[in-house]
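Folded chain entry
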Amino acid sequence: MTGVSEDRKVPEPEARQRGGPSARLLHRGLGALSGLIAGFAALAVAELAAAAVRPEAGPLTAVGSAFIDRTPPWLKDFAVRNFGTADKLVLQLGILVVLALFAMAVGVFALRHRRAGSAAVLVFGAIGAVAAVGRPGGGPADAVPSVVGALVACGVLYLLVGRLALRPSRAAGGTGGTFDRRGFVITATAAAVASAGAGALGLRLGASGSAGAVASRKDVVLPPPASPARPVPAGADLRIRGLGPFTTPNKDFYRVDTALVVPRVDARSWRLRIHGKGVTRPLTIGFDDLLRRELIERDITLTCVSNEVGGPYVGNARWIGVRLADLLREAGVRPPSKGGPADQLVARSVDGMTIGSPVETVMDGRDALLAVGMNGEPLPFDHGFPVRMVVPGLYGYVSACKWLQDLELTTFDAYDAYWVKRSWSQRAPIKTESRIDTPRAFASPKPGKVPVAGVAWAQHRGIARVEVRVDGGPWHPARLAAQDTRDTWRQWVWEWPATTGSHTLEVRATDQNGYTQTGKRVGTVPDGATGWHSVVVSVT
């Protein structure tokens, strides 16, 4: 007898004859290792194949993106709140852990059912293929990476498990069992090395595939704006330790989106299409076309609707771009107040994201932009290169489409954009909010004068007043920094005569319309959080 029949289940008494508990544990451990190696081979080969199709077709990205698309609002909110901008990394690690456990279980199963166990890895390939084909812009070719990866994994597992087939041991009088240890080590090592090579080559090819986009960004020279932003007024930045700068550097600007792979779009081939209801002159515009138009430069603060009270998802930058309203008027668009039939502008990203903005709002005279630059340089890829929308006064999920490629005029009754389908509001003006940046929660300042400082924002209304109170006592007016524009946040500071003990500090802001933010705490869904930010400190 040369080995166990490939699909015959070994009777338990016979299995016990083939060694003690430690030998059986080793055998199963090597089966699990075989499954892991096969899973690694699947991912590596699939990523190599995806380099020939498109990065979004890789199974890890496709399955992760499909999971994000089906994530309920409360879970998405939980992920952003607890993991911040690392939420995508956590998701990918979670998928890898699940895949690893599945692969190990399949490897152990294949020890007794070699063919059936090896074929079970095709389930992973099927899931990846279905997810990839269902992605925006997906087609039959997007299934290829997952299918090829699964077939390779099937073959790898079949070979590895074959090396683990138990044979009678003459030394044990035929009552024990042994397997081809040397053959297993050689086969496992070869599979792991080949998979690593395939994965490295896939990464290299993927990087070279985006080289054109990188080169196109390097070649961009932003023309001087016809309408430059006014200089930030002296005193707008209080320069207090623990308080961030008035202008947020690009590398520190928050990023919240659903893209597991940041799109890298070649500006030379980029086109924007403007069409839809009420468009009498449809437009198709290239990147160079935009740069030749009248550019304006403005300081605008952006806020994510996922920002909890006191959260970090707000930032201020100097943007340069084309007035969105000018382009819409050129296409013949009229706002509803002037008889236009469309009340929603749906922006589509190259990654399939859809964001719906009120037509009336983007054409009411505010500096709604198709931005091409951020803080003096072309947009970073993470923030939407080559073109993104920036609309002051609206949360990002209804205004700030990145990697923009299509603008369609329609109505709110006719179409629900991506986040609206997931229980968020159709219209979401930014709420009046404030935040304490220093002292930090649980800080231990010394008694005496302690600067309590932070930022407040009410984009497109502006901040009129900020107040601070201690331990539920009377409100004290804070000193406001100089105001740049009503579309930017405003720094503030209050000199607190701190006394020894534990204290709770709270802040509230009042906007230029006279509205004072409410102290009632509500979560971010469906249209943004409310409540006073508070920190507890211990003065010692």
In short: The chain has a mean pLDDT of 92. DSSP finds 13 helices and 20 strands in the chain.
